[in-house]
């Protein structure tokens, strides 16, 4: 009788240990992957870049600084790509950016557009992107209307406040304000045009 009781106790312990071990393995294997995708901003901008490189557009840039006059010059596709890097470097679906952003989507009747807004999940000063707003036309193909990006870059004791605007198949602008203790010490604006 003691042997049967000992056997049943050992068997019960083996079953309990095995069940706990199985539950730990199940918990490890059921981690969920984020399968939702944000708006494919990066891919669309790469398509715009491809179009600029393959089409002989007349392209030019206009630089304006707070204390100087406007300076304009003709640019080539390689220069365009360099100037567009503040836009092209943003990939909303990258593992380095997506986990830190919230997405909000709504139909804006006042502008007849769909608005995709991306903001940081918390007031994280290490994230340079403060907001991204993508507007799509309220038409049958929901074509891209505008892209607005707001960034705050910290450089030593200076803050660079950037406002970026991309008008598809037309132009982009980069407005910069250089702030020192909340006072504007410099401003610049870049306009790049490749109008069809």
Q: Helical residue percent?
A: 25-40%
Please tell me the overall pLDDT. 84
Give unreliable regions as ranges: 5-13
- Percent strand equals 35-45%
Largest sheet: 9 strands, antiparallel
State the secondary-structure class.
alpha+beta
Radius of gyration: 27 Å
Number of strands: 9
Spatial order of the strands in the main sheet? Answer: 2-1-9-8-7-6-5-4-3
Q: Which of globular, elongated, flat, extended, rod-shaped describes the shape?
A: globular
How many helices? The count is 4
Q: What is the succession of H and E elements?
A: HHEEHHEEEEEEE
Give the terminus-to-terminus CA distance: 94 Å
What do these coordinates show?
- This protein has 196 residues and is of the alpha+beta class.
- Helix content is 27%, strand content 40%.
- The protein is globular.
- The termini are far apart.
- About 5% of the residues have low confidence.
Topology overview:
Layout: H1 2-29, H2 41-54, E1 60-65, E2 71-74, H3 77-83, H4 85-88, E3 101-108, E4 113-120, E5 129-137, E6 144-155, E7 158-167, E8 171-180, E9 183-193
């Amino acid at each position: 009788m003691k042997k049967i009781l000992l056997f049943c106790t050992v068997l019960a312990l083996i079953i309990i240990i095995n069940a706990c071990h199985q539950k730990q393995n199940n918990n490890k294997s059921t981690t969920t992957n984020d399968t939702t995708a944000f708006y494919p901003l990066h891919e669309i901008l790469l398509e715009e870049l491809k179009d600029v490189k393959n089409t002989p557009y007349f392209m030019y840039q206009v630089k304006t600084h707070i204390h100087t006059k406007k300076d304009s010059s003709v640019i080539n596709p390689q220069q365009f790509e360099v100037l567009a890097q503040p836009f092209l470097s943003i990939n909303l679906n990258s593992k380095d950016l997506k986990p830190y952003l919230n997405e909000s989507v709504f139909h804006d009747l006042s502008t007849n557009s769909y608005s995709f807004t991306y903001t940081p999940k918390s007031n994280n000063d290490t994230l340079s992107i403060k907001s991204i707003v993508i507007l799509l036309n309220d038409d049958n193909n929901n074509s891209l209307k505008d892209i607005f990006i707001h960034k705050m870059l910290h450089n030593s004791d200076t803050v660079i406040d950037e406002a970026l605007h991309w008008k598809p198949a037309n132009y982009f602008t980069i407005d910069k304000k250089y702030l020192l203790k909340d006072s504007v010490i410099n401003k610049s604006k870049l306009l790049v045009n490749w109008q069809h």
